[in-house]
Amino acid sequence: MTGERNHSSHSRGASKPSRPRKPAPPRRRTGPSRPPVEDPARTAALDTLRAVRQRDAYANLVLPQLLRERRISGRDAALATELAYGASRAQGLLDTVIEACSDRPLSEVDGSVLDALRLGAYQLLRTRIPAHAAVASTVDLVRGEAGSGAAGFVNAVLRRITQQDEAGWVDELAPDPDEDPIGYLALANAHPRWIAQAFAEALGSREEPLKLALEADDARPAVHLVARPGEVSSDELAAMTGGDVAPYSPYGVHLEAGAGDPGDLDPVRERLATVQDEGSQLCALALTRAPLEGTDQRWLDLCAGPGGKAVLLAALVGLEGGELDAVEKAPHRAELVRKITSGLPVNVHVGDGRESGLEHGTYDRVLVDAPCTGLGALRRRPEARWRRQPSDVGQLTKLQRELLTEALLLVRPGGVVGYVVCSPHLSETVAIVGDVARRTGAEVLDARELFPGVPQLGDGPHVQLWPHLHGTDAMFCAVLRRVP
Ligand SMILES: C[S@@+](CC[C@H](N)C(=O)[O-])C[C@H]1O[C@@H](n2cnc3c(N)ncnc32)[C@H](O)[C@@H]1O
């Protein structure tokens, strides 16, 4: 204590001892009064929406931190999560309805007021919260933050929204389903049209399969865990976590959607398990299952950060006495790979996979889990669908093509390369593989054979997984062999 005081008077450079400070008189609020009832759940949800809008933050990083800092738990935490993630996911649909009920264009609505309107509209359209409670609690939040004028505007808009349910608004505002089925399904399932279009092209359908895919993509997903091979079985992991053994991955476990922060689970903390979508597990395993003649000890993960697949690959190659090289361009993500794979036979290299300096023709198996739009994992990243732009696709495909081409040089003749993206967009999937296979002469394997027991894998040779068919993210996997 003394040291602290000395330090502070010294640092101020004061010659006179400073007078003890009187506690400041309470400041009179000249602005609007605070809401009479504290509402920690909605306040946390609103602060999350604001961080997403103002700072391009990720809702699923911001909210857990807010909940921890504010010690919000139990039902309040569950409500905050439902509202923050739900309103982020449904943003385009909510905005369409809000605009229809507003006397001014959304571009003229203050950002914080728009966040509150989204929060209120989400409660009205997509939860069972009684309308009067949804409206009153949102108006209270706005009055506390922005004053009674803004509160009046929000009250008027939300009251107009209560006049119909979600289906009614979709019927009124969506394009005619006969004339524009993709536009209709996009709005009805809160997806941007260009993404619904990309799904339709990958599915080869604008009808029932597209509807099911968008619906599944709009639902809150279960958390998937992967058991670390050689450490714990999926049965044991399921028993430890209260989850269910996954249907397809021999290492997978599914937890109930909204089952809390999986990082708090003992097996995850003790590094017996990692959070990883079952589709990602299956794609990494497909590479390990491709038939190979000759040596099988040197594996490479060319885009490794943050290390989910590297853990699985390293654990498996380690059981056979081999090792994994892991390349990652971003230093902080390479550090995550180092941490998550510590204790496993992994050499982490920070660098560009297109010019890694690693020796060509020496690897038995190479994974290219390429940077992609992530359109296949939108259900796990609440705001991502509204942030991604069609122009992102073109920027990524050049890099994807170059990484796959380099992987086919790094692998030995007869060795195999797995090309994986978390996206069903045809420009990132079949177009890349077709182009690179043509130019390099690599043999394209029938990847379906490397997904044993998984149904509905289509005509091949590549595998496209889907939330509505497999309960996984929409992962794409192709497997190529370098011709000897
Ligand atoms: C889809 S993620 C990989 C996910 C990882 N395999 C996992 O399962 O956790 C793609 C990674 O590639 C990295 N990356 C981007 N450009 C790269 C490049 N030119 N060379 C190597 N890595 C790159 C990104 O930083 C990102 O971490």
From TrEMBL:
<dbReference type="InterPro" id="IPR023267">
    <property type="entry name" value="RCMT"/>
</dbReference>
<dbReference type="InterPro" id="IPR001678">
    <property type="entry name" value="MeTrfase_RsmB-F_NOP2_dom"/>
</dbReference>
<dbReference type="Pfam" id="PF01189">
    <property type="entry name" value="Methyltr_RsmB-F"/>
</dbReference>
<comment type="similarity">
    <text>Belongs to the class I-like SAM-binding methyltransferase superfamily. RsmB/NOP family.</text>
</comment>
<feature type="binding site">
    <location>
        <position position="328"/>
    </location>
    <ligand>
        <name>S-adenosyl-L-methionine</name>
    </ligand>
</feature>
<dbReference type="InterPro" id="IPR035926">
    <property type="entry name" value="NusB-like_sf"/>
</dbReference>
<dbReference type="GO" id="GO:0006355">
    <property type="term" value="P:regulation of DNA-templated transcription"/>
</dbReference>
<feature type="region of interest" description="Disordered">
    <location>
        <begin position="1"/>
        <end position="40"/>
    </location>
</feature>
<feature type="binding site">
    <location>
        <position position="369"/>
    </location>
    <ligand>
        <name>S-adenosyl-L-methionine</name>
    </ligand>
</feature>
<comment type="function">
    <text>May act as RNA methyltransferase.</text>
</comment>
<feature type="binding site">
    <location>
        <position position="352"/>
    </location>
    <ligand>
        <name>S-adenosyl-L-methionine</name>
    </ligand>
</feature>
<keyword id="KW-0489">Methyltransferase</keyword>
<feature type="compositionally biased region" description="Basic residues">
    <location>
        <begin position="18"/>
        <end position="31"/>
    </location>
</feature>
<protein>
    <submittedName>
        <fullName>rRNA small subunit methyltransferase B</fullName>
    </submittedName>
</protein>
<dbReference type="Pfam" id="PF01029">
    <property type="entry name" value="NusB"/>
</dbReference>
<dbReference type="InterPro" id="IPR029063">
    <property type="entry name" value="SAM-dependent_MTases_sf"/>
</dbReference>
<keyword id="KW-0949">S-adenosyl-L-methionine</keyword>
<dbReference type="GO" id="GO:0001510">
    <property type="term" value="P:RNA methylation"/>
</dbReference>
<feature type="binding site">
    <location>
        <begin position="303"/>
        <end position="309"/>
    </location>
    <ligand>
        <name>S-adenosyl-L-methionine</name>
    </ligand>
</feature>
<dbReference type="InterPro" id="IPR049560">
    <property type="entry name" value="MeTrfase_RsmB-F_NOP2_cat"/>
</dbReference>
<dbReference type="GO" id="GO:0008173">
    <property type="term" value="F:RNA methyltransferase activity"/>
</dbReference>
<keyword id="KW-0808">Transferase</keyword>
<feature type="active site" description="Nucleophile">
    <location>
        <position position="422"/>
    </location>
</feature>
<dbReference type="GO" id="GO:0003723">
    <property type="term" value="F:RNA binding"/>
</dbReference>
<dbReference type="InterPro" id="IPR006027">
    <property type="entry name" value="NusB_RsmB_TIM44"/>
</dbReference>
<feature type="domain" description="SAM-dependent MTase RsmB/NOP-type">
    <location>
        <begin position="199"/>
        <end position="483"/>
    </location>
</feature>
<keyword id="KW-0694">RNA-binding</keyword>
